[in-house]
Amino acid sequence: MSSPKSLLIRRARIILPNGEFMVGDVLTRDRQIVEVAPEISTLSPTREIDATGLTLLPGVIDPQVHFREPGLEHKEDLFTASCACAKGGVTSFLEMPNTRPLTTNQQTLDDKLQRASTKCLVNYGFFIGATAENLPDLLTANPTPGIKIFMGSMHGQLLVDTEAALEAIFAQGDRLIAVHAEDQARINQRRQEFAGIHDPAIHSQIQDNQAALLATKLALKLSQKYQRRLHILHMSTAEEADLLRQDKPSWVTAEVTPQHLVLNSSAYEKIGTLAQMNPPLRSPHDNQVLWQALRDGVIDFIATDHAPHTLAEKAQEYPNSPSGMPGVETSLALMLTAAMEGKCTIAQVVNWMSKAVAVAYGIPNKGAIAPGYDADLVLVDLDTYRPVRREELLTKSGWSPFEGWNLTGWAVTTIVGGEIVYDKGKLNTEVRGQVLTFL
Taking the C-alpha atoms of 234, 237, 239 and 244 in order, what is their torsion angle to the nearest 10 degrees? Predict the structure, then answer.
């Protein structure tokens, strides 16, 4: 029988569960943290890291990604995406169902879980996708963080855009429902109004603030009618934030992407269709209101909506260009850079990117540096600024909307289940994450 593996991290600036910092040591054994103290005396750990000058945070849990496998592996796959996660300090992810085939039943969920068990360097979970016909599967598929509903910005089976079909899903069961809240009828109408315009900036007018607000209002109405656990994905508008500020039931949560905090519609002039995503980028005013809602707790946490496409696909003329952008490699550095600029605190970033996600989805033993918690950790350097460089990205798509941005807080070492998966630019591709559980 092999002896337990241990890892000792020495002299790190550790963020504690109460948000305060302590310079000290962390000892992990097998997959768990066993001790956090100013100094730990232990007999010869399996591995030791001198973390002098570095800050130790809980690993990021990214609760909305599109990793494209199966069926769209030319854009990304579970291995390349999990490598990008490790480089970005993301130690767990929740992935969406719009793959080929769609993840809409136990069989397709099991297929993804099997693939992930052999390929993923980090921990993983997969949403079950709602259609108008698969209610029995939505009630029984397991394990899953919840049901994903595309109320808009989708075509085919995954588009659920009638109130009757939505109500049928909200009315049965108690599993969390996560919604992409855009009103498809309004989008269709505005596509006709703006037909023939090839400037990608028109995307933000076609799928406008009103389209988002209409859908979020409907989701909230159904959630309140059935007291059904609701999560609003990638909230993008000031109007939605104001709506939640006025009336947010205790069982409702919301997220925002770094893109919707730090990019706006001016990005189309600089990077064209690389700025195209769903829901679209908004105005500087929306940026400001979303930041305030996040700081105030109206919005609960951060997700990237990592949705890569190839540069060739993105180079197509609008509206043939697909919506979506990669994000797992840059999200933590973007948010820590914002913290260093005074927009928030490091403790808030940790809450938004780790602890609050674990709480919202009922993921046990994640999101804090304390004995008994899983040893999913990231050491970051808050003293060094480096630009986002295309040639250094590990996502298969090979680009970032933040190329050239000078950021701090880059991951130096990422640890998954007590194993070093990324260290100073090098990956350990032998490490495998575990399937997440949801209480």
Answer: 30
CA distance linking residue 75 with residue 325, whole number of Å: 11
In this model, does residue 3 exceed pLDDT 80? Answer: no
CA–CA distance, 91 with 100 (Å, rounded to integer): 25
261-282 per-position pLDDT tens digit: 999 999 999 999 999 999 999 9
383 is catalytic: no
| In contact, 291 and 269? CB cutoff 8 Å | no
SS (H, E, C) the chain: CCCCCEEEEEEEEEECCCCCEEEEEEEEECCEEEEEECCCCCCCCCEEEECCCCEEEECEEEEEECCCCCCCCCCCCHHHHHHHHHHHCEEEEEECCCCCCCCCCHHHHHHHHHHHHHHCCCEEEECEECCCCCHHHHHHCCCCCCEEEECCCCCHHHECCCHHHHHHHHHCCCCCEEEECCCHHHHHHHHHHCCCCCCHHHHHHHCCHHHHHHHHHHHHHHHHHHCCCEEECCCCCHHHHHHHHHCCCCCEEEEECHHHHHCCCCHHHHHHHHHCCCCCCCCHHHHHHHHHHHHHCCCCEECCCECCCCHHHHCCCCCCCCCCECCCCCHHHHHHHHHHCCCCCHHHHHHHHHHHHHHHHCCCCCCCCCCCCECCEEEEECCCCEECCHHHCCCCCCCCCCCCCEECCEEEEEEECCEEEEECCEECCCCCCCECCCC
Q: pLDDT for 339-391, tens place per residue?
A: 999 999 999 999 999 999 999 999 999 999 999 999 999 999 999 999 999 99
Please check the confidence at residue 1 and state whether its pLDDT lies above 50: no
Choose, from 25, 286, 300, 305, the residue flagged as catalytic.
305
Predicted pLDDT of residue 44? 84
Single pTM value for the model: 0.98
| CA-to-CA dists, residue 161 to 85, 242, 253, 365, angstroms | 32, 24, 21, 36
